[in-house]
């Protein structure tokens, strides 16, 4: 079988109608091997459930603080910019070679190459983390980054052909005609405790006949959705029908409507066409089901040449998926429906060296690299994108931040913390990134662009390009580039703070930050000072200013005039941008870190030492309009330094000492510094203490 279809196709979890070709696996890790792996994965921050016994036996006290997301979901608001054509909501189903990779580890990892981390989250509604587990919990690294960018982080409930005792989902008690499901309560509590936002429910095998009733499954789903609450999401996958058969409908039909309504959303299979999509919308409108809650599946892998007569198919039937994934998004936007994109990390799996470039082709329509190569053969032809079919063309774009708060330090998921050091994964640190448009042209000769610089400190570099020699310059350089789309009404006023360094001192350029206001046609320009070093700009926006800015802020960008240089010249480095409620500046805050200590944890091969601490805050922190964590309070993360060396960033109140650290520091005095960093990037508290790492703890 593997020689016919290829191993990557076999690993694809949600099939396109060929599940019957795959027999139930009879090999794999033993239960004891799975248990040991699960214990090792706990120390990476991973949580999942392989069996019903694990699921039913779970208690909150069983969890490790490393497994819990601390970053609250940033509320999203509708943008103020005029739409350029219809837009579709986008749900990503992330299956990257089975997932739970080391680079998703809460401790981070050194890498030779970048791996998948979606940098276009402003175009994503929900992100499903998918793995071949009975219940899959998104790693906190993913949940933290998704929440910081306003994206729902969903886990997966997966019943596959090899899953045993599936009727345990349907076990319930009855009282006064109402059914109560213990597992529904358990699943909702798991989502709340670990800090994620719901589930994709994917049932790929019929239930035992003696336990089956569509009304029982409906009641289970209704209870799960109710207990998750209004701010979380439940999505049904189009596999099991109300007749207890696996029959992919590729649409919303009478065979899956009951379960779609119970969940509130549905992800269809991938072999649909325009007629199935149109009929689905008709059924939705007739039954009172929101059409935008129908996510039509788009199989990114369908563009590959599997070498099989049963090649995978998705919309459009010829050349769909891959670099043409955006074609399906465009069609669904035209129909007023939504897109469910399966395996967006295809660009990294199929093009391991050129993953980032191929991802930009998929999302933004960039040209394929000249030297593109893949296992399909003739990649430049097979994976050539249809003009104008990128995902962002028709995906709904959300403003960054929310109406009272915005902060970015331009962190990506991968960085070099030492200039010549290795690439390091920091998946949970990704900040809201600028609008992914490389430049805005004002004529063919002059432009400005931005790029994210990689180094010990994250930053955005803005560059000017002029191809006319300065001594023959005949036109005045006047360019603008948007950085962030916003929708901040400025009720009560907003405080803007930007840290930057002006690099344009000898170019004749006049750089400014540009604020586009909701109730004004002309932007407000804030001049960039030329002071030869890092500078902090502060400005007030809103009714407490002298200008009529009561409508608030809708876009922040960069404006440049007078540039007389030649070629490409760096103009500005921006390190942080924050926008907060004006009154929050006047709220007193008292924070501290205390009781820093070393603790022994684990047994056997998982025995290790952790740094642990506590914090104090104030009730005003919850009222300031700044995000507040249920786990770490006013602190977004903590920096851990030992003997003057930065040992990492942690999003909880504990940090593991690696084996190398333990070996280096055993029976030595340690100067431990813990710095608590707030959600606006400011150092809120610092604690330094001396500790002794005794060999008895090792």
UniProtKB/TrEMBL annotation:
Pfam short name (any one): Glyco_hydro_85
InterPro entries listed in its UniProt record: ENGase, TIM_ENGase
GO molecular function: mannosyl-glycoprotein endo-beta-N-acetylglucosaminidase activity
GO cellular component, one term: cytosol
Gene3D superfamilies tied to this protein: Glycosidases
Annotated Cytosolic endo-beta-N-acetylglucosaminidase TIM barrel domain residues: 104-417
Protein name (database record): Cytosolic endo-beta-N-acetylglucosaminidase TIM barrel domain-containing protein
């Amino acid at each position: 079988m593997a020689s016919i279809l290829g191993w990557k196709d076999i690993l694809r979890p949600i099939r396109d109608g060929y599940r019957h070709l795959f027999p139930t696996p009879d090999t794999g890790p033993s239960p004891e091997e799975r248990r040991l792996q699960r214990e090792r994965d706990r120390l990476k921050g991973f949580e999942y459930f392989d069996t019903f016994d694990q699921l039913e036996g779970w208690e909150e006290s069983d969890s490790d603080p490393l497994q819990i997301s601390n970053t609250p979901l940033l509320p999203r608001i509708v943008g103020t910019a005029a739409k350029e054509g219809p837009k579709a909501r986008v749900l990503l189903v992330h299956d990257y070679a089975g997932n739970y990779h080391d680079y998703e580890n809460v401790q981070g990892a050194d890498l030779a190459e970048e791996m998948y981390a979606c940098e276009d989250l402003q175009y994503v509604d929900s992100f499903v983390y998918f793995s071949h587990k009975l219940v899959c919990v998104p790693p906190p690294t993913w949940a933290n980054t998704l929440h910081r960018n306003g994206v729902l982080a969903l886990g997966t409930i997966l019943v596959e052909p090899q899953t045993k005792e599936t009727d345990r989902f349907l076990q319930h008690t009855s009282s006064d005609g109402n059914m109560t499901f213990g597992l529904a309560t358990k699943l909702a509590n798991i989502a709340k405790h670990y800090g994620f936002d719901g589930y994709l429910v994917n049932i790929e095998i019929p239930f035992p006949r003696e336990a089956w009733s569509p009304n029982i499954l409906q009641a289970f789903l209704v209870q799960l959705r109710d207990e998750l609450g209004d701010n979380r999401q439940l999505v049904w996958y189009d596999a099991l029908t109300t007749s207890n058969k696996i029959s992919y409908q590729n649409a919303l039909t009478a065979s899956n409507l009951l379960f779609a309504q119970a969940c509130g959303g549905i992800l269809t299979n991938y072999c649909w066409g325009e007629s199935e999509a149109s009929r689905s919308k008709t059924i939705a409108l007739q039954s009172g089901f929101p059409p935008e809650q129908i996510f039509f599946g788009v199989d990114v892998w369908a563009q590959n040449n599997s070498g099989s007569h049963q090649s995978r198919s998705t919309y459009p039937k010829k050349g769909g998926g891959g670099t043409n994934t955006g074609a399906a998004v465009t069609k669904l936007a035209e129909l007023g429906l939504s897109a469910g994109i399966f395996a967006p990390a295809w660009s990294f799996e199929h093009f391991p060296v050129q993953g980032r470039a191929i991802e930009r082709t998929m999302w933004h329509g960039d040209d394929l690299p000249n030297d593109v190569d893949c296992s399909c053969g003739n990649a430049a032809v097979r994976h050539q994108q249809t003009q104008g079919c990128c995902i962002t063309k028709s995906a709904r774009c959300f403003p960054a931040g929310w109406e009272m708060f915005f902060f970015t330090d331009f962190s990506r998921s991968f960085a070099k913390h030492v200039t010549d050091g290795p690439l390091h994964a920091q998946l949970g640190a990704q900040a809201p990134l600028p609008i992914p448009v490389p430049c805005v042209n004002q004529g063919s000769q002059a432009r400005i662009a931005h790029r994210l610089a990689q180094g010990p400190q994250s930053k955005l570099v803005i560059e000017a390009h002029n191809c006319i020699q300065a001594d023959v310059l005949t036109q005045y350089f006047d360019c603008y580039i948007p950085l962030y789309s916003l929708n901040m009404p400025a009720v009560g006023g907003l405080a803007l703070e930007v840290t930057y360094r002006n690099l344009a001192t000898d170019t004749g350029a006049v750089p400014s930050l540009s604020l586009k206001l909701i109730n004004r046609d002309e932007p407000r320009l804030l001049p960039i000072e030329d002071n030869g070093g890092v500078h902090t700009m502060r400005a007030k926006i809103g009714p407490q200013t002298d200008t009529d800015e009561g409508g608030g802020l809708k876009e922040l960008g960069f404006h440049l005039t007078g540039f007389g240089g030649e070629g490409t010249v760096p103009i500005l480095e921006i390190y942080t941008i924050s926008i907060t409620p004006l009154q929050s500046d006047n709220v007193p805050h008292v924070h501290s870190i205390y009781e820093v200590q070393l603790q022994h944890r684990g047994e056997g091969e998982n025995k290790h030492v952790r740094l642990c601490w506590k914090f104090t805050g104030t009730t005003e922190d919850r009222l300031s309009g700044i995000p507040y964590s249920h786990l770490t309070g006013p602190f977004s993360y903590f920096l851990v330094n030992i003997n003057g060396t930065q040992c990492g960033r942690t999003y909880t109140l504990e940090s593991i000492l690696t084996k190398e650290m333990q070996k280096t520091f055993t029976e030595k005095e340690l100067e431990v510094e813990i710095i608590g960093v707030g959600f606006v990037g400011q150092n809120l508290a610092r604690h330094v203490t001396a500790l002794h790492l005794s060999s008895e703890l090792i």
